[in-house]
């Protein structure tokens, strides 16, 4: 291999021995920047030919079904459901043999349930609550959205909220069928006595944190003639005390029934 008088390798001549074409190399005068960049490892991506952006194949993202806004329909039937949800729940449970909280779409008979919906409205409702795109209607989620308010509701500036939205949003646990059943069972009693219940919650909350420990929370419910089974209490705690802090926000609890 040829070297110059100073013993330096003529790398251009050296590389030409392994290439059939002329290799154009950078100037022998290196700047600090170019020297630093030359130390970066060469990756396979650098060696691949670049394809113009316009000719690259587009990746199709996985598309879920359209999210339908059925709020006007749900508002239309909410009052009827408030008075007949027990009957609806009972009939749906009878058809839910596998106890999964869903029934075949064809079994959701709006006329029989006296919801007074058009065929198009029924199609929109059943499409929205067919979460798995398997032809099943998630009746638990449907009733929950019409009766309970587990998600913060949009309000106008002129609309007075019964319980103000929290500064720190609730990070809830799973909404299981058992949780839904437990909350739905006590819903009429909560609506009947929520004002004295909230006053009692506050009297137990001496530090004004908005939180109660589990025994105090259960005691307040007991004083309002609301008795939870161990299983029901566990299901409620799984939702409202996801982090297992042994504390529950009584405002978050009441807000689900009152927004």
Automatic annotation (TrEMBL):
Residues 51-60 have a biased composition (Polar residues). Residues 197-257 form the EF-hand domain. The keyword DNA-binding does not apply. GO terms for cellular component: nucleoplasm. The keyword Calcium applies. Keywords: Calcium, Metal-binding. PROSITE patterns: EF_HAND_1. Transmembrane segments: none annotated. GO terms for molecular function: calcium ion binding. It comes from the Eukaryota. Pfam families: EF-hand_7. SUPFAM superfamilies: EF-hand. Residues 28-44 have a biased composition (Low complexity). Residues 28-60 are annotated as: Disordered. This is EF-hand domain-containing protein. It comes from Apteryx owenii.
